[in-house]
Write a structure and sequence with these properties.
The structure holds 2 protein chains of 2 kinds.
Chain A (H helix, E strand, L loop, with lengths): L1 H18 L2 H21 L15 H31 L1 H6 L5 H29 L7 H30 L2 H5 L2 H9 L12 H9 L1 H14 L4 H31 L3
Chain B lengths: L1 E3 L2 E3 L14 H6 L3 E2 L2 E2 L3 E10 L2 E11 L4 E5 L6 H8 L7 E6 L2 E2 L4 H7 E4 L11 H11 L4 H14 L15 H13 L5 E5 L7 H18 L2 E6 L2 H7 L2 E6 L2 E6 L1 H8 L3 E6 L5 H8 L5 E2 L5 E5 L7 H10 L4 E7 L3 H9 L9 H10 L1
Parallel strand pairs in B: 7-12, 7-13, 10-11, 11-12
Antiparallel strand pairs in B: 1-2, 3-4, 5-6, 5-8, 8-9, 13-14, 15-17, 15-18, 16-17
The chains are: A mainly alpha, B alpha+beta.
Chain lengths: 258, 363
């Protein structure tokens, strides 16, 4: 029970920290929504293009990408907060206590996952007010939010690993543009069917494309076990890789004291 | 003079460096052993820490007794913080051995962590959390249940005078408040040994003295052993019962502050002569009390073996000889003098004791 309480307490701290830093919460929460508002207005007529998925609105097409974007941005904040703990000395306070080393990672990762999950539900709530129709209903929204949470945990683990390796908030924040690149070289904001050349090849190779397309299906078409499992599987794979990297980075940081 | 660990040290300043491996009989007699385990909260034997080619700690031995406030005094870069980081399991020793509350810092780090409280330099406290939240978090990290954690958080906030600020974010706290909170955080699990690494560096004199009071109170009321590093000789002098002085990674002197100072030499009386006073006459009077000490032309100084008890007699003798004085100053040896004698140089960062003494006296 002690271990669970420690995970919960460190997760709670991670979430509180995010909400108490306007500079962290604004990019994670607001930018995807602003981008959603702009792209919905600008590309509304693109849904009439031949080859564009059958959707009610561009909003219905892009909401899955917005949720993934929010999860990715929030995950960068997890790494930045870990780096801040290292720079400020709080990390040493943690390791000077008998807390399980895994809790230090799990607290941050669970914090990112929780934010990613509830952020997705929040985005659904806001966009439903503006006319979004989710074909898969409440179950689809839950599954999309769950996948977003796992993805946030996975990307959060990678940024936490980066923080543990560098110990620098600036270095972690410097990875922010990379998240943009990963997202833009995917089918997040435009269907692969309408892409061409090297960009289509790159988007096809990008696992984020397949994850978003799986989530998009739940929104546009309805529930599908295979589509959900594809999306969730990619998120889970990112999490496994991320945790391995973060675990290695934590061992490296603790080992550097030997 | 003899050499200790390569440094030239006055033999008078070196406490008998009883090795850790002293006979069991000897140590039992002195209360060091209980059922075969050391009961001293901190026992260090030939501890070494290297960073590449740099040897930050060069084979130190230490023994800290239960319930004492032990001071670890030295200038910046002397090896104080490196030693504390090894004793608190944050850094592995290159060689040597350290037992804290009977547990090996390398072999049983978790057992050490459960039994110690640590307040490192710069009060590493999350500025986004409130004091109460941090105390509760610290309680959870030490495996204390929620209800008990709440109770202890409330008690400690009261104890360090932060109840009114308990629900404010730490980012709004002053330096002194942060240090007091840091102290409370290190006490939440009721540790047997409290490590304070330069707890008052950067604090104003009043906040510094307030923190001294907290540490004294804690030591007096709960019997917690305190291991304190400092670069301020006044802090070591006023707060600790026994000190070790470290310089360039080696311990150059160890003992009670008063004992160390007494080994430096006798107090000196410094007489400031009034304008126009015959210096030779003043010297003749003063030399009947002790050996001369070189001083400025308008001052005459002599060793005064009797210290303060003799000052009255000196004043009367000067008065009877018709020698007008502008002032009398009795200078007792300071820890800086101890440090100077042990190392050949002054302690960096030593600051005016007058300010701190004044602040201490005001309380």
């Amino acid at each position: 029970m002690t271990g669970v309480a420690q995970y919960a307490a460190l997760s709670r701290r991670a979430i509180l920290n995010t909400f108490r830093q306007p500079t962290a919460i604004v990019p994670a929460l607001m930018f995807p929504l602003l981008f959603l508002a702009m792209s919905s207005a600008a590309f509304e007529r693109s849904i009439a293009l031949l080859g564009f998925p059958q959707v009610d609105s561009f909003l219905q097409f892009v909401i899955a990408a917005t949720i993934v974007q929010g999860a990715l941005f929030g995950a960068v904040a997890a790494g930045a907060d870990m780096a801040t703990d290292i720079e400020g000395g709080f990390f040493e306070r943690l390791i000077a206590s008998p807390v399980a080393r895994s809790s230090i990672l799990a607290g941050r990762v669970m914090g990112a996952a929780t934010l990613g999950f509830f952020q997705a539900l929040l985005y659904f709530g806001i966009t439903i007010v503006f006319g979004l129709d989710v074909a898969g209903g409440v179950a689809a929204m839950f599954l999309v939010a769950l996948t977003a949470g796992v993805l946030a945990a996975g990307i959060g683990s990678i940024t936490v690993a980066f923080a543990l390796r560098t110990g620098s908030t600036e270095a972690v924040q410097g990875s922010f543009p990379l998240v943009f690149v990963i997202l833009f070289i995917s089918s997040a904001f435009f269907p692969r069917e309408l892409m061409g050349g090297w960009f289509k090849g790159a988007a096809t190779l990008n696992p984020i494309s397949h994850m978003i397309e799986g989530l998009r299906f739940l929104v546009i078409e309805g529930l599908s076990a295979s589509k959900f499992l594809t999306a969730f599987g990619i998120s889970a794979a990112v999490l496994v890789v991320g945790l391995a990297l973060a675990g290695g980075a934590l061992s490296g940081r603790l080992g550097s004291r030997a | 003079m003899r050499h200790v660990c390569g440094n030239t040290v006055s033999p008078a300043l070196v406490a008998d460096p009883e090795p850790l491996a002293a006979s069991a009989e000897t140590r039992k007699k002195e209360g060091f052993l209980s059922r075969g385990r050391p009961i001293e909260p901190v026992v260090v034997e030939n501890l070494v820490r290297r960073f590449g080619a740099v040897e930050a700690v060069r084979g130190i031995d230490l023994h800290v007794s239960a319930g004492e406030i032990f001071g670890f005094l030295g200038p910046n870069g002397a090896g104080k913080s490196t030693t504390v980081r090894m004793l608190t399991t944050l850094l592995k020793p290159t060689s040597g051995r350290a037992l804290v509350t009977g547990h090996d810092v390398v072999g049983a780090p978790d057992a050490v962590r459960r039994s110690i409280g640590v307040a490192l330099q710069d009060a590493a406290i999350d500025p986004l959390m409130t004091g109460r939240e941090l105390l509760r978090l610290q309680a959870v990290l030490h495996g204390i249940d929620k209800h008990e954690g709440r109770r202890r958080a409330g008690d400690l906030l009261e104890k360090v005078g932060l109840t009114a600020a308990a629900d404010r974010r730490v980012g709004t706290y002053s330096g002194g408040m942060r240090r007091r909170l840091d102290l409370a955080l290190s006490l939440v699990h009721e540790p047997q040994v409290l490590f304070l690494d330069e707890p008052t560096t950067g604090l104003d004199p009043t906040s510094r003295v307030a923190l001294w009071d907290e540490v004294r109170k804690l030591n007096r009321e709960s019997g917690t052993t305190v291991f304190l590093t400092t670069q301020y000789m006044e802090e070591a002098d006023h707060l600790t019962g026994r000190i070790a002085i470290i310089d360039e990674g080696r311990i150059v002197a160890e003992g009670a502050p008063a004992e160390l100072k007494s080994r430096v030499g006798e107090p000196a009386l410094r007489v400031a002569l009034a304008p126009g006073v015959d210096r030779l006459a003043a010297e003749a009077t003063l030399l009947t009390f002790g050996e001369p000490v070189p001083d400025a032309p308008d001052h005459v100084a002599v060793r005064l073996p009797g210290g303060a008890a003799q000052v009255g007699a000196v004043a009367r003798a000067l008065d009877e000889a018709g020698i007008e004085v502008a002032g009398l100053e009795l200078r007792t040896p300071s820890l800086d003098d101890v440090f100077l004698l042990a190392t050949g140089h002054r302690l960096e960062g030593a600051e005016s004791s007058a300010v701190l003494e004044e602040a201490d006296a005001e309380r």
